[in-house]
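Most newcomers find our protein records easier to grasp once they have seen one. Read left to right, the backbone structure tokens trace the chain's path through space. Once this layout is familiar, the rest of the handout is easier to follow. The record below serves as our worked example for the rest of this section:


***
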Amino acid sequence: MKRLSEIGIGKKAIIKSFEKDEIFIKLMEMGCIPGEIIGVEQVAPLGDPISVSVAGYNLSLRLNEADQIFVEEVD
């Protein structure tokens, strides 16, 4: 399992779990739920934030947020 912050641009992954419960509710409200496919669309020039597609829309996440999402990369 990897962290979302380790997934490259253009790659997709399935959300598996979260590291901390505090961020879990915030991310679930944004559509980041276990089992959902998430794709990394863009990374800012300095690496933070990243743009992801999840649940049919685009979302910007800070690296510290992406670092707390565990995913399994898909082909």
Remarks:
- Residues 21-29 form the longest helix (9 residues).
- The mean pLDDT is 90.
- The chain has one domain: 2-74.
